[in-house]
């Protein structure tokens, strides 16, 4: 019965670690796909612009949607990662519940939704100011193509500043809270460490305990020295 209980406890402790590994793998895959799409589409636009190759406006709109969206995805993802660290440090008991695999998938969808909102606003202003014949024209594909009036440029700048302000507030708030938790942990260690060191100091006066601790320290030093000497075998 004891072995069965021990195995069940080990399985219970391994499940959160497995979930965290799956979540980290999903985030890495998401970041790699995002960077690949952004670099691939950006390189295509640079090549087309360098050779002055004109394409139809409707095709430029499709390419620009990916570029604008994944340009915002990068800082939004960093902000989401900061919130994840805030939850892990400030609310460790709820970290496994809030940062599960399903929550990660929802978070990826939310990141894309939040990043797609500026594209909708910028393109909506463009759609409202041009005629249908404009989409059939051949022009060099750049983001400035969609800025026909000065007020559109001002709105785009306001959107970028708004996103920057919100993300900056979230990141500063998260790190301030993490710093407070670190200070509280240091304050707790000031009271805990002396109580932990007292049994150790008094235990060193016992000859048997001191002899066992000395042998353990010698064994560790011997193993480290052996691994340093024969590094390939230890690896």
UniProtKB/TrEMBL annotation:
Assigned keywords, A-Z? Membrane, Transmembrane, Transmembrane helix
Identify the residues that the record assigns to the G-protein coupled receptors family 1 profile domain, covering every copy. 6-178
Q: Which InterPro entries match?
A: GPCR1_Superfamily_Member, GPCR_Rhodpsn, GPCR_Rhodpsn_7TM
Please state the protein's primary subcellular location: membrane
Cellular component GO terms, alphabetical = membrane
The record's subcellular location field reads: Membrane
Q: Name one GO molecular function term.
A: G protein-coupled receptor activity
Membrane-crossing ranges are 20-41, 53-73, 103-127, 209-227
Query: Which PANTHER family does the record cross-reference, listed alphabetically?
Result: G_PROTEIN_RECEP_F1_2 DOMAIN-CONTAINING PROTEIN, GROWTH HORMONE SECRETAGOGUE RECEPTOR TYPE 1-LIKE-RELATED
Q: What's the protein called, per UniProt?
A: G-protein coupled receptors family 1 profile domain-containing protein
Q: Which organism is it from?
A: Neolamprologus brichardi
């Amino acid at each position: 019965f004891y072995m069965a209980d021990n195995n069940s406890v080990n399985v219970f402790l391994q499940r959160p670690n497995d979930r965290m590994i799956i979540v980290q793998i999903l985030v890495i895959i998401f970041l790699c796909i995002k960077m690949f799409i952004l670099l691939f589409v950006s390189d295509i636009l640079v090549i087309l612009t360098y050779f002055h190759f004109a394409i139809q406006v409707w095709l430029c709109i499709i390419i620009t949607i990916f570029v604008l969206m994944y340009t915002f995805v990068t800082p939004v993802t960093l902000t989401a990662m900061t919130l994840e660290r805030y939850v892990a440090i400030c609310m460790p008991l709820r970290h496994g519940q809030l940062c599960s695999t399903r929550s990660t998938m929802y978070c990826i969808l939310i990141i894309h939704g939040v990043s797609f909102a500026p594209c909708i606003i910028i393109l909506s202003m463009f759609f409202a100011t041009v005629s249908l014949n404009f989409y059939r024209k051949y022009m060099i594909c750049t983001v400035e193509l969609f800025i026909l009036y000065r007020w559109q440029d001002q709105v785009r700048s306001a959107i970028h500043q708004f996103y920057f302000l919100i993300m900056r507030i979230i990141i500063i708030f998260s790190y301030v809270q993490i710093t407070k938790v670190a200070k509280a942990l240091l304050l707790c260690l000031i009271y805990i460490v002396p109580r932990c060191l007292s049994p150790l100091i008094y235990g060193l006066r016992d000859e048997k305990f001191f002899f066992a601790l000395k042998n353990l320290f010698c064994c560790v030093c011997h193993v480290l020295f052996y691994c340093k000497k024969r590094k390939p075998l230890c690896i």
